[in-house]
Design goal:
Blueprint: H1 3-32, H2 37-44, H3 51-61, H4 67-79, H5 93-128, H6 133-147, H7 150-164, H8 180-206, H9 209-216, H10 221-249, H11 253-258, H12 264-273, H13 277-305
Helix pairs in contact: 1-13, 2-3, 5-6, 5-8, 5-10, 5-13, 6-8, 7-8, 8-10, 9-10, 10-13, 12-13
């Protein structure tokens, strides 16, 4: 087995205790939270439920058993590939998550596209226009992006492009245009961070010996910037963008709620509202698994970009 294969296996095995701890913590917090799932479900159906109906539903859902028994039964089913049934959806947990996953993947991909194109473009512009008014203006714009939270950006985008100009849809995922505003709201902060990080890395790269040597050979500023400085500066930028993509895949709860996108983030919010323990635990496990897989892919991409990168402390 090669070092790369050992690294991947070690990372995959390392996720087991992490997910176990996270699932145990999420289950404990759910148990401590106020509210009875059976009563909440019956109340959402209309009217004030009878005590007998609440007790019958609690028994049907297995909520009348001690907490440690509930958790143990859930773990046993999970070992057999069964995430349990969602309380309020009445369908398998993993089916519910997979049904919502395409919306979140499309949102994450669109947000990553904004961050890559806009962040790298603005970072290169600041590096090329160093010391000019253009650099100052671009840097000021990135500072404004960093200062504004995602929910405020989402509201402003809805107001401008949905209410005033009426050129873009502000809710739903029925067509591709519905992802423009939510992905932009998610990406602006990371776009600004990418631009500033790339500018800082390019500043160091352009001051290095290899860049100075390239200039002495008579190469143009643009060629030195794009051919020599940019590949080295992209390594930390790629790491940050990979973590951003993994975080968005985990579910952008606020943005998905504001734009009424049926993704896994909004599904997690439903699980919290209904005290849907199996769905909430399944979401946590799903999120943890995706995050680890994406970070492994990012590590392999970084190794491809720069062979000097070490995996797990190995050469």
């Amino acid at each position: 087995m090669t070092m790369l294969q050992r690294y991947i296996c070690r990372r995959l095995l390392g996720i087991v205790p992490v997910l176990f701890g996270i699932s145990l913590l999420s289950f404990a917090l759910a148990q401590l939270s106020p509210g009875d799932p059976a009563q909440i479900i019956l109340e959402s159906a209309g009217g004030v439920p009878k005590e007998a109906d609440v007790e019958a539903l609690r028994s049907y859902l297995g909520l009348d058993k001690p907490a440690y028994v509930q958790y143990g039964l859930w773990l046993w089913r999970l070992l057999h590939g069964d995430g349990g049934m969602s309380f309020h959806l009445g369908m398998p947990v993993f089916d519910a998550l997979l049904e919502r996953l395409p919306v979140t993947v499309a949102l994450a991909a669109a947000a990553l596209g904004w961050a890559v194109v806009g962040g790298i473009g603005m970072g290169l512009l600041m590096a090329r226009m160093r010391g000019t008014i253009v650099e100052a203006l671009v840097r000021g714009v990135t500072q404004l992006m960093l200062a504004a939270p995602s929910f405020l950006i989402a509201i402003l985008l809805i107001l401008v492009f949905g209410v005033w100009l009426r050129v873009l849809p502000t809710n739903g995922a029925e067509m591709a245009a519905g992802y423009i505003l939510p992905s932009l709201a998610l990406a602006l902060v990371t776009l600004a961070m990418t631009a500033q990080l790339l500018d800082s890395q390019l500043r160091d790269a352009l001051a290095s010996n290899y860049a100075q040597t390239a200039r002495l050979r008579g190469l143009s500023t643009e060629r030195v910037l794009l051919t020599y400085a940019l590949p080295n500066a992209l390594v930390p930028v790629a790491a940050m963008l990979g973590n951003f993509f993994a975080a968005v895949l985990g579910g952008a709860i606020i943005v998905e709620t504001v734009f009424a996108l049926p993704g896994i983030g909004s599904l997690a919010l439903e699980a919290i509202h209904y005290r849907d323990y199996p769905l909430l635990q399944g979401y946590v496990l799903f999120l943890g698994g995706i995050y680890v897989l994406v970070t492994i892919v990012v590590d392999l991409v970084l190794l491809r970009l720069d062979p000097r990168v070490m995996l797990g402390g190995g050469r």
